[in-house]
Specification:
With 315 residues, the chain is α/β, with parallel strands linked by helices. The chain has nine helices and 13 strands.
Length: 315
């Protein structure tokens, strides 16, 4: 499997590069980044034979079977569609788009081409959330409530590496997308009710810096999600699952019960790295000729719910 990583020297591009290095039979044959000197140096350092500053140059190559897009959110839809129209399978980092209309177009092109197109909903693959999902599938757990906190301190336009961004991140279409998809995935239902409240917009970034979201599925399970770019404290996303049989707290790839006793996840997956697991699923789906867990059509329900939440801001 010959992969191109676009946005390769960004924070998540590098995570994918490191993950792909752990997977047998995979070669990164091309990398893309916006600055020629940086992408050339990165390719030389990683031993990648081709580097380019445009995605078009990478898509034109015969030695690229599939593309992982770790590029700015606003480019995801356009680039995912370009990959499929060039005959390349595509894994697009979360979110696959920042509007419902663009998400629907990605799904349409996937259905038209029949290629593998996967959205980077990594929470489906973190061993902590997989453990919960397996218990639900086995009939051992039912979710009553999910209480989720997504907190960052990001009052200037910086990425996860602390470097200036050329684009603006978004609490709803990026960070809330993780939890909206996970809540619907874990309950197996699409939200029947969803609303949001947002705080003041940043005077320069033009985005809400604080947000509260409430959701409910037909079974009655609810989810409360609090998000902030103003939080000067522990950073990240923390999930509390309140179930009929116990309470569980997920912190990325780790899981604890309600009394902070850590749960052994060693037998859940072949790796404890969620990014590696999502890349493995993408590659396996291509090799096996099937749609992956996290296929764009599967994630469309989350994008519909995000659109509903965005429209609720106006009311």
């Amino acid at each position: 499997m010959r992969i191109c990583v676009a946005g390769a020297y960004g924070a998540f591009g590098m995570k994918h590069m490191d993950a792909l290095a752990q997977i047998d039979g995979v070669t990164v044959t091309s990398v893309m980044g916006p600055t020629k000197a940086k992408i050339d140096a990165f390719a030389a350092e990683r031993g990648v034979p081709h580097a380019a500053t445009t995605l078009e140059d990478c898509l034109a190559r015969d030695d690229v079977d599939a593309v992982i897009l770790s590029t700015p959110t606003q480019l995801h839809a356009e680039q995912a569609i370009a990959c499929m129209k060039a005959g390349k399978h595509v894994l697009v980092e979360i979110p696959m788009a920042d509007t419902l209309a663009d998400s629907q177009e990605i799904v349409r092109v996937q259905q038209e081409t029949g290629l593998v197109a996967m959205a980077g909903q990594v929470r489906r693959f973190n061993p902590s959330h997989q453990w919960i999902h397996n218990k639900i599938e086995a009939g051992e757990l039912n979710i009553q409530q999910m209480d989720v906190q997504t907190y960052f301190f990001r009052r200037s336009n910086m990425n996860a590496k602390g470097e200036p961004r050329s684009w603006t991140d978004h609490l709803l279409w990026h960070h809330a997308c993780h939890t909206v998809d996970l809540f619907q995935y874990q309950t197996g239902q699409t939200c029947s009710e969803a609303f949001g409240l947002q705080g003041p917009h940043h005077p320069d970034l033009g985005i809400a810096m604080d947000m509260t979201i409430g959701m409910k599925v037909p079974s009655g399970a609810i989810c409360t999600l609090s998000l902030s770019f103003n939080n000067d404290g522990p950073l990240g996303t923390f999930f509390r699952y309140i179930c009929d049989e116990g309470t569980y707290i997920a912190r990325y790839d780790d899981l604890y019960d309600g009394y902070e006793n850590q749960i052994d996840l060693s037998d859940v997956a072949v790796s404890n790295n969620g990014i590696e697991l999502i890349d493995r699923e993408f590659i396996s789906a291509i090799q096996e000729g099937r749609q992956p867990n996290g296929a764009v059509a599967d994630v469309l329900g989350a994008m519909e719910t995000l659109d509903k939440i965005e429209r609720s801001f106006a009311s």
